[in-house]
Write a structure and sequence with these properties.
9-stranded antiparallel sheet, mainly beta
Length: 203
């Protein structure tokens, strides 16, 4: 693993990490040679992963900050010749190839803050889950030094598993293993809250 973290330009921060990992004797689920049961835990999987993680921020003004981040992960795993793993290599995980984030944070005056975020996540391979794009916004007003009122809204749309970036009329949660898409309206969430106590200072 190698990386860099610093402030290459005024009002700018940057962090970049490159990684490459090699694994052997990873967990598999093995049946006995001459029967389907009982199952036992084996170590018949090997593989490697590599990718990059990077994020940066830029202070446009004293009250407005822009941030961006990206993370990629590529994996190659295979089984030993004598392995009969029946778990379909689930021990290798189910991870997106990339995640991308953009964020804008504004502190308008002493009491009003606006936080906007856009995030894109690649599809999951096993079990298959569509890639998605989501956006959310948080508006907060500090009524007093100890009380803050905030409103948060969120939006999410799927993109096709094997197509171009075209938003579909449906949403699928990450935890749902079903590969189907377009089964319902886009997820839109709004919530408000009133908080008391110590309020953190704006950026």
């Amino acid at each position: 693993e190698a990386g860099y973290r610093g402030a290459p330009l005024p009002r700018t921060t940057l962090s970049v990490s490159l990684f490459y990992n090699v694994y052997d004797d990873l967990r598999t689920t093995e049946p006995p040679p001459d029967a389907p049961v009982p199952l036992h835990v084996g170590n018949g999987m090997n593989g490697r992963t590599w990718g990059v993680e990077a994020w940066g921020s830029y202070d446009v003004t004293s009250w407005w900050r822009l941030s961006a981040g990206v993370a990629t992960l590529h994996k190659e795993f295979d089984l030993d010749p004598d392995s009969r793993d029946i778990s379909n290599m689930q021990a290798a995980g189910n991870d997106p190839n990339y995640q991308f984030m953009l964020r804008s944070q504004m502190a308008i005056g002493d009491r009003f803050t606006v936080d906007l975020r856009l995030r894109a996540v690649d599809a999951l391979p096993n079990p298959p889950v569509s890639a998605y794009v989501e956006a959310d916004a948080n508006l907060a007003y500090r009524i007093t030094d100890n009380v803050e009122l905030s409103v948060t809204g969120g939006w999410r749309r799927l993109v096709p598993l094997l197509g171009t970036v075209v938003f579909l009329p449906g949403c699928l949660e990450d935890s749902d293993p079903s590969p189907s898409v377009g089964t319902g309206p886009c997820e839109i969430v709004f919530e408000g809250q009133l908080e008391g106590g110590t309020i953190p200072e704006p950026i």
